[in-house]
Amino acid sequence: MVGLGYGFRTVRLLNRSLIRLIAGFLVGLGLTVSIAACSPVGNSGSQVELTLVSFAVTRSAYESIMPLFAAKWKAEHQQEVVFNQSYGGSGAQARAVVDGLDADIVNLALALDVKRIEKAGLIQPGWDKDIPNGAIVTHSVVDLVTREGNPKNIQGWSDLAREDVRVVTANPKTSGGARWNFMALWGAVTQKGGADPQAQEFTAQVYQNAPLLPRDAREASDAFFQQEQGDVLLNYENEVILARKKGMDLPSVLPTDVNISIDNPIAVVDKNVDRHGNREVAEAFVQFLFTPEAQREFAKAGFRPVDPQIVQEFASQYPTVNKLFTVKELGGWNEVQAKFFDDGAVFDQIQASLRG
Q: Which pTM was predicted?
Protein backbone atom coordinates (compact mmCIF):
# COMPACT_ATOMS: atom_id res chain seq x y z
CA MET A 1 0.00 0.00 0.00
CA VAL A 2 1.28 3.45 -0.90
CA GLY A 3 0.13 6.55 0.93
CA LEU A 4 1.07 9.93 2.27
CA GLY A 5 0.23 10.96 5.85
CA TYR A 6 -0.23 14.45 7.21
CA GLY A 7 1.26 14.01 10.71
CA PHE A 8 1.65 17.67 11.74
CA ARG A 9 2.29 18.81 15.27
CA THR A 10 0.27 21.33 17.24
CA VAL A 11 1.71 24.82 17.61
CA ARG A 12 0.23 28.13 18.67
CA LEU A 13 1.81 30.95 16.74
CA LEU A 14 2.29 31.61 13.07
CA ASN A 15 6.05 31.71 13.35
CA ARG A 16 8.23 30.98 10.40
CA SER A 17 8.35 27.25 10.99
CA LEU A 18 4.58 27.13 11.25
CA ILE A 19 4.22 29.09 8.06
CA ARG A 20 6.31 26.48 6.33
CA LEU A 21 4.25 23.80 8.02
CA ILE A 22 0.95 25.24 6.86
CA ALA A 23 2.27 25.75 3.37
CA GLY A 24 3.36 22.14 3.27
CA PHE A 25 -0.06 21.06 4.45
CA LEU A 26 -2.03 23.14 1.99
CA VAL A 27 0.39 22.44 -0.82
CA GLY A 28 0.06 18.78 0.04
CA LEU A 29 -3.68 19.10 -0.45
CA GLY A 30 -3.01 19.95 -4.04
CA LEU A 31 -0.72 17.07 -4.72
CA THR A 32 -1.91 13.87 -6.19
CA VAL A 33 -2.03 11.28 -3.46
CA SER A 34 -2.80 7.71 -4.29
CA ILE A 35 -3.58 4.78 -2.09
CA ALA A 36 -3.93 1.50 -3.83
CA ALA A 37 -5.17 -1.75 -2.48
CA CYS A 38 -2.39 -4.07 -1.36
CA SER A 39 -2.93 -6.07 -4.52
CA PRO A 40 -5.56 -6.15 -7.18
CA VAL A 41 -8.39 -8.35 -5.98
CA GLY A 42 -10.86 -7.97 -8.82
CA ASN A 43 -14.49 -8.80 -8.28
CA SER A 44 -15.50 -12.23 -7.06
CA GLY A 45 -18.19 -13.70 -4.93
CA SER A 46 -16.44 -12.82 -1.70
CA GLN A 47 -14.82 -9.52 -2.69
CA VAL A 48 -15.63 -6.49 -4.78
CA GLU A 49 -13.26 -3.67 -5.73
CA LEU A 50 -14.18 0.02 -5.99
CA THR A 51 -11.98 2.87 -7.19
CA LEU A 52 -12.73 6.37 -5.90
CA VAL A 53 -11.10 9.39 -7.55
CA SER A 54 -11.63 12.57 -5.55
CA PHE A 55 -10.27 16.03 -4.87
CA ALA A 56 -7.56 16.19 -2.28
CA VAL A 57 -9.18 17.45 0.90
CA THR A 58 -11.86 14.75 0.99
CA ARG A 59 -9.32 12.14 1.99
CA SER A 60 -9.75 12.67 5.72
CA ALA A 61 -13.51 12.12 5.48
CA TYR A 62 -13.27 9.06 3.24
CA GLU A 63 -10.81 7.40 5.55
CA SER A 64 -13.64 7.31 8.09
CA ILE A 65 -16.55 6.72 5.73
CA MET A 66 -15.18 3.76 3.76
CA PRO A 67 -14.90 1.39 6.75
CA LEU A 68 -18.47 2.25 7.74
CA PHE A 69 -19.80 1.40 4.30
CA ALA A 70 -17.64 -1.72 3.99
CA ALA A 71 -19.01 -3.05 7.29
CA LYS A 72 -22.58 -2.33 6.24
CA TRP A 73 -22.15 -3.96 2.83
CA LYS A 74 -20.50 -7.04 4.31
CA ALA A 75 -23.30 -7.47 6.86
CA GLU A 76 -25.94 -7.20 4.16
CA HIS A 77 -24.22 -9.01 1.28
CA GLN A 78 -21.50 -11.16 2.91
CA GLN A 79 -19.03 -9.53 0.54
CA GLU A 80 -15.85 -7.59 1.32
CA VAL A 81 -15.38 -4.19 -0.35
CA VAL A 82 -11.80 -3.23 -1.20
CA PHE A 83 -11.28 0.45 -2.04
CA ASN A 84 -8.67 1.92 -4.35
CA GLN A 85 -8.35 5.68 -3.87
CA SER A 86 -6.75 8.60 -5.65
CA TYR A 87 -6.73 12.20 -4.35
CA GLY A 88 -5.52 15.36 -6.05
CA GLY A 89 -6.55 18.65 -7.61
CA SER A 90 -10.07 18.44 -9.04
CA GLY A 91 -9.19 19.49 -12.57
CA ALA A 92 -6.16 17.21 -12.69
CA GLN A 93 -8.26 14.30 -11.41
CA ALA A 94 -10.88 14.87 -14.10
CA ARG A 95 -8.20 14.94 -16.80
CA ALA A 96 -6.68 11.74 -15.38
CA VAL A 97 -10.03 9.92 -15.55
CA VAL A 98 -10.54 11.06 -19.12
CA ASP A 99 -7.02 9.85 -19.92
CA GLY A 100 -7.64 6.41 -18.43
CA LEU A 101 -7.53 6.50 -14.62
CA ASP A 102 -9.94 3.66 -13.92
CA ALA A 103 -12.41 5.40 -11.58
CA ASP A 104 -15.71 3.85 -10.61
CA ILE A 105 -16.80 6.94 -8.67
CA VAL A 106 -15.64 10.56 -8.91
CA ASN A 107 -16.13 13.24 -6.24
CA LEU A 108 -14.83 16.54 -7.61
CA ALA A 109 -14.76 20.17 -6.53
CA LEU A 110 -17.08 21.51 -9.21
CA ALA A 111 -19.59 20.20 -11.70
CA LEU A 112 -17.60 21.45 -14.69
CA ASP A 113 -14.98 18.78 -13.96
CA VAL A 114 -17.61 16.02 -13.89
CA LYS A 115 -19.08 17.38 -17.11
CA ARG A 116 -15.65 17.06 -18.69
CA ILE A 117 -15.75 13.31 -17.96
CA GLU A 118 -19.33 13.18 -19.24
CA LYS A 119 -18.21 14.86 -22.46
CA ALA A 120 -15.60 12.13 -22.88
CA GLY A 121 -18.41 9.56 -22.90
CA LEU A 122 -17.56 7.92 -19.57
CA ILE A 123 -20.55 9.29 -17.61
CA GLN A 124 -24.07 9.28 -18.99
CA PRO A 125 -25.95 12.59 -19.28
CA GLY A 126 -28.41 13.08 -16.44
CA TRP A 127 -26.05 11.73 -13.81
CA ASP A 128 -27.02 14.56 -11.47
CA LYS A 129 -30.70 13.56 -11.67
CA ASP A 130 -30.13 10.00 -10.44
CA ILE A 131 -28.40 10.91 -7.18
CA PRO A 132 -29.88 12.64 -4.10
CA ASN A 133 -29.59 16.43 -3.77
CA GLY A 134 -28.75 16.88 -7.42
CA ALA A 135 -25.55 14.86 -6.81
CA ILE A 136 -24.14 17.57 -4.51
CA VAL A 137 -22.72 15.64 -1.57
CA THR A 138 -21.01 18.46 0.38
CA HIS A 139 -20.79 22.23 0.46
CA SER A 140 -18.19 24.82 1.43
CA VAL A 141 -17.77 28.61 1.17
CA VAL A 142 -14.89 31.00 0.51
CA ASP A 143 -12.79 31.99 3.53
CA LEU A 144 -10.24 34.82 3.73
CA VAL A 145 -6.97 33.67 5.31
CA THR A 146 -5.03 36.61 6.76
CA ARG A 147 -1.61 37.19 8.26
CA GLU A 148 -1.21 36.64 11.99
CA GLY A 149 -3.09 39.32 13.91
CA ASN A 150 -4.78 40.50 10.69
CA PRO A 151 -2.52 43.60 10.43
CA LYS A 152 -4.47 44.99 7.44
CA ASN A 153 -7.73 44.70 9.40
CA ILE A 154 -9.46 42.76 6.65
CA GLN A 155 -13.09 42.26 7.63
CA GLY A 156 -14.84 41.29 4.42
CA TRP A 157 -15.12 41.45 0.65
CA SER A 158 -14.89 45.23 0.31
CA ASP A 159 -11.47 45.30 2.01
CA LEU A 160 -10.03 43.19 -0.81
CA ALA A 161 -10.40 46.18 -3.13
CA ARG A 162 -8.46 48.59 -0.89
CA GLU A 163 -5.27 49.99 -2.41
CA ASP A 164 -3.17 48.86 0.57
CA VAL A 165 -4.26 45.20 0.43
CA ARG A 166 -2.53 42.56 -1.66
CA VAL A 167 -4.61 39.50 -2.56
CA VAL A 168 -3.48 35.98 -3.42
CA THR A 169 -5.77 33.81 -5.53
CA ALA A 170 -5.14 31.46 -8.39
CA ASN A 171 -5.95 32.13 -12.03
CA PRO A 172 -9.60 31.18 -12.76
CA LYS A 173 -8.63 30.35 -16.34
CA THR A 174 -6.51 27.46 -15.06
CA SER A 175 -7.90 26.68 -11.59
CA GLY A 176 -11.37 25.36 -10.80
CA GLY A 177 -11.09 26.54 -7.22
CA ALA A 178 -10.23 30.03 -8.37
CA ARG A 179 -13.45 30.12 -10.37
CA TRP A 180 -15.35 29.78 -7.12
CA ASN A 181 -13.33 32.73 -5.79
CA PHE A 182 -14.10 34.83 -8.87
CA MET A 183 -17.81 34.09 -8.63
CA ALA A 184 -17.79 34.87 -4.91
CA LEU A 185 -16.33 38.31 -5.66
CA TRP A 186 -18.85 38.92 -8.41
CA GLY A 187 -21.75 37.79 -6.24
CA ALA A 188 -20.58 39.96 -3.36
CA VAL A 189 -21.92 42.84 -5.48
CA THR A 190 -24.76 41.38 -7.54
CA GLN A 191 -26.32 39.37 -4.70
CA LYS A 192 -26.64 42.59 -2.70
CA GLY A 193 -28.45 44.41 -5.48
CA GLY A 194 -25.53 45.69 -7.52
CA ALA A 195 -25.54 45.61 -11.31
CA ASP A 196 -23.05 43.76 -13.52
CA PRO A 197 -20.97 46.91 -14.31
CA GLN A 198 -20.54 47.51 -10.57
CA ALA A 199 -19.59 43.88 -10.03
CA GLN A 200 -17.05 44.04 -12.83
CA GLU A 201 -15.55 47.26 -11.41
CA PHE A 202 -15.23 45.70 -7.93
CA THR A 203 -13.83 42.42 -9.23
CA ALA A 204 -11.32 44.33 -11.38
CA GLN A 205 -10.16 46.28 -8.32
CA VAL A 206 -9.56 43.04 -6.42
CA TYR A 207 -7.60 41.52 -9.30
CA GLN A 208 -5.60 44.71 -9.55
CA ASN A 209 -4.48 43.85 -6.01
CA ALA A 210 -3.52 40.36 -7.17
CA PRO A 211 -0.72 41.09 -9.63
CA LEU A 212 0.43 37.48 -9.70
CA LEU A 213 -2.10 34.76 -10.45
CA PRO A 214 -0.70 31.32 -9.61
CA ARG A 215 -1.76 28.46 -11.82
CA ASP A 216 -3.72 26.58 -9.14
CA ALA A 217 -4.62 26.50 -5.45
CA ARG A 218 -1.44 24.68 -4.61
CA GLU A 219 0.74 27.41 -6.09
CA ALA A 220 -1.42 30.10 -4.47
CA SER A 221 -0.91 28.53 -1.03
CA ASP A 222 2.80 28.27 -1.74
CA ALA A 223 2.96 31.96 -2.70
CA PHE A 224 1.11 33.04 0.46
CA PHE A 225 2.73 30.80 3.06
CA GLN A 226 6.18 29.91 1.77
CA GLN A 227 6.98 33.01 -0.27
CA GLU A 228 5.02 35.25 2.13
CA GLN A 229 3.35 37.15 -0.69
CA GLY A 230 0.17 39.12 -0.09
CA ASP A 231 -1.99 40.03 2.89
CA VAL A 232 -4.89 37.68 2.30
CA LEU A 233 -5.41 34.30 0.63
CA LEU A 234 -8.78 33.30 -0.80
CA ASN A 235 -9.33 29.70 0.26
CA TYR A 236 -12.05 27.12 0.97
CA GLU A 237 -13.59 27.12 4.45
CA ASN A 238 -13.18 23.34 4.68
CA GLU A 239 -9.43 23.60 4.11
CA VAL A 240 -9.13 26.17 6.89
CA ILE A 241 -11.17 24.00 9.27
CA LEU A 242 -9.18 20.89 8.42
CA ALA A 243 -5.90 22.76 8.93
CA ARG A 244 -7.09 23.86 12.38
CA LYS A 245 -8.06 20.30 13.22
CA LYS A 246 -4.49 19.35 12.38
CA GLY A 247 -3.31 21.82 15.04
CA MET A 248 -2.57 24.86 12.88
CA ASP A 249 -3.61 28.25 14.23
CA LEU A 250 -4.81 29.64 10.91
CA PRO A 251 -6.28 33.17 11.14
CA SER A 252 -9.14 33.87 8.78
CA VAL A 253 -12.22 36.03 8.25
CA LEU A 254 -15.31 34.30 6.88
CA PRO A 255 -17.61 36.71 5.00
CA THR A 256 -21.10 35.98 6.33
CA ASP A 257 -22.99 38.85 4.69
CA VAL A 258 -22.85 37.12 1.33
CA ASN A 259 -20.91 34.10 0.13
CA ILE A 260 -21.06 31.45 -2.56
CA SER A 261 -22.09 27.87 -1.91
CA ILE A 262 -19.22 25.77 -3.21
CA ASP A 263 -21.08 22.63 -4.27
CA ASN A 264 -19.10 19.41 -4.63
CA PRO A 265 -20.68 16.79 -6.92
CA ILE A 266 -20.33 13.01 -6.99
CA ALA A 267 -21.02 10.65 -9.88
CA VAL A 268 -20.73 7.04 -10.89
CA VAL A 269 -18.50 6.53 -13.92
CA ASP A 270 -20.94 4.47 -15.97
CA LYS A 271 -18.61 3.09 -18.60
CA ASN A 272 -16.14 1.83 -15.98
CA VAL A 273 -18.60 0.24 -13.54
CA ASP A 274 -20.31 -1.59 -16.39
CA ARG A 275 -16.94 -2.90 -17.52
CA HIS A 276 -15.94 -3.85 -13.97
CA GLY A 277 -19.29 -5.39 -13.11
CA ASN A 278 -19.54 -3.43 -9.84
CA ARG A 279 -22.35 -0.97 -10.57
CA GLU A 280 -24.53 -2.22 -7.70
CA VAL A 281 -21.94 -1.60 -5.01
CA ALA A 282 -20.79 1.68 -6.62
CA GLU A 283 -24.33 3.06 -6.62
CA ALA A 284 -24.89 1.82 -3.06
CA PHE A 285 -21.73 3.60 -1.90
CA VAL A 286 -22.85 6.86 -3.51
CA GLN A 287 -26.25 6.56 -1.81
CA PHE A 288 -24.52 5.83 1.51
CA LEU A 289 -22.66 9.14 1.30
CA PHE A 290 -25.96 10.95 1.81
CA THR A 291 -26.83 9.10 5.03
CA PRO A 292 -26.45 10.91 8.37
CA GLU A 293 -23.67 8.48 9.23
CA ALA A 294 -21.52 9.53 6.27
CA GLN A 295 -22.56 13.16 6.34
CA ARG A 296 -21.34 13.37 9.94
CA GLU A 297 -17.85 12.32 8.83
CA PHE A 298 -17.82 14.94 6.07
CA ALA A 299 -18.79 17.57 8.64
CA LYS A 300 -15.99 16.48 10.96
CA ALA A 301 -13.56 16.96 8.06
CA GLY A 302 -14.65 20.56 7.48
CA PHE A 303 -17.34 20.25 4.81
CA ARG A 304 -20.79 21.74 5.23
CA PRO A 305 -23.15 18.74 5.20
CA VAL A 306 -26.28 18.44 3.04
CA ASP A 307 -28.31 16.30 5.48
CA PRO A 308 -30.59 18.60 7.54
CA GLN A 309 -30.09 16.57 10.72
CA ILE A 310 -26.31 16.85 10.49
CA VAL A 311 -26.55 20.51 9.54
CA GLN A 312 -28.21 21.11 12.90
CA GLU A 313 -25.76 18.89 14.72
CA PHE A 314 -22.77 20.92 13.46
CA ALA A 315 -24.44 24.32 13.38
CA SER A 316 -21.94 25.82 15.82
CA GLN A 317 -19.02 24.88 13.55
CA TYR A 318 -20.37 26.61 10.49
CA PRO A 319 -21.34 30.30 10.75
CA THR A 320 -24.60 31.19 9.09
CA VAL A 321 -24.21 33.10 5.83
CA ASN A 322 -27.00 35.65 5.44
CA LYS A 323 -27.05 35.48 1.66
CA LEU A 324 -25.74 32.15 0.42
CA PHE A 325 -25.97 31.96 -3.35
CA THR A 326 -25.27 29.19 -5.84
CA VAL A 327 -23.87 29.02 -9.34
CA LYS A 328 -27.45 28.54 -10.52
CA GLU A 329 -28.23 32.11 -9.44
CA LEU A 330 -25.45 33.26 -11.76
CA GLY A 331 -27.10 31.40 -14.62
CA GLY A 332 -25.69 27.89 -14.24
CA TRP A 333 -22.35 26.46 -15.30
CA ASN A 334 -22.84 26.81 -19.05
CA GLU A 335 -23.72 30.50 -18.78
CA VAL A 336 -21.02 31.14 -16.16
CA GLN A 337 -18.38 29.56 -18.35
CA ALA A 338 -19.42 31.57 -21.42
CA LYS A 339 -19.92 34.86 -19.55
CA PHE A 340 -16.85 34.84 -17.35
CA PHE A 341 -14.21 32.32 -18.37
CA ASP A 342 -14.28 31.67 -22.11
CA ASP A 343 -11.66 33.43 -24.20
CA GLY A 344 -12.58 37.12 -24.46
CA ALA A 345 -15.16 36.90 -21.66
CA VAL A 346 -15.31 39.03 -18.49
CA PHE A 347 -12.18 37.71 -16.83
CA ASP A 348 -10.11 38.31 -19.96
CA GLN A 349 -11.66 41.79 -20.28
CA ILE A 350 -10.64 42.58 -16.70
CA GLN A 351 -7.09 41.40 -17.28
CA ALA A 352 -6.86 43.42 -20.49
CA SER A 353 -8.08 46.55 -18.69
CA LEU A 354 -5.49 46.08 -15.94
CA ARG A 355 -2.70 45.70 -18.48
CA GLY A 356 -3.85 48.79 -20.33
A: 0.84
